[in-house]
Design goal:
The complex is a heterodimer of chains A (112) and B (114). Chain A is mostly beta strands and 112 residues long. Chain A has no helices and eleven strands. In chain A, strand 9 and strand 10 form a beta hairpin. The chains are: A mainly beta (112), B mainly beta (114). Chains A and B meet through strand 4, strand 5, strand 9 and strand 10 of A and strand 5 and strand 10 of B.
Amino acid sequence: KQEVTQIPAALSVPEGENLVLNCSFTDSAIYNLQWFRQDPGKGLTSLLLIQSSQREQTSGRLNASLDKSSGRSTLYIAASQPGDSATYLCAVMEGSARQLTFGSGTQLTVLP
Amino acid sequence: EAGVAQSPRYKIIEKRQSVAFWCNPISGHATLYWYQQILGQGPKLLIQFQNNGVVDDSQLPKDRFSAERLKGVDSTLKIQPAKLEDSAVYLCASSRGTVLHEQYFGPGTRLTVT
């Protein structure tokens, strides 16, 4: 059974810092990996999607990498801002029904 | 394009009562998902529909949870009777299909069972 782990569970950084969020998964037979952002009281917003054949994806200040063989992904946020404060979730898509299995998330606080 | 709509946004009930949640997916999206997100955890898939058929409901507690997607558009998720451990956010998501298609999530319904 796939298990997705995110470390750390919570992170607090001063504004302007570059930071890395980690995600690991136990079964490398995945189709893709997605990073989501969740704000309090709101649903999930997709940030980046990396197909299993890709190594990384970039969007603005965000860069996500995928090492499928080692079961790891990182989300790099450059020049963090208070507006980046949210919970970040990673999820892997797997199985014949293409279902998502989520990690528990990293709660990020960027201090002004 | 309108996003995934869910109602109600919040619901408080007593244990052993029943409750229903409604979801309207993005127009044209064939696949619809219901997730349960307990505080401090990631979402867990409860049931997946392709049009009006069930693709997977292996994690749905069928003794108390039921879901339907009549006409392959909007969907309802029902809990009867509710237990304290059902307190969670119930998220609905939709996608165009299942093959590598991105899922779009609604705002969720926060259920508190007292």
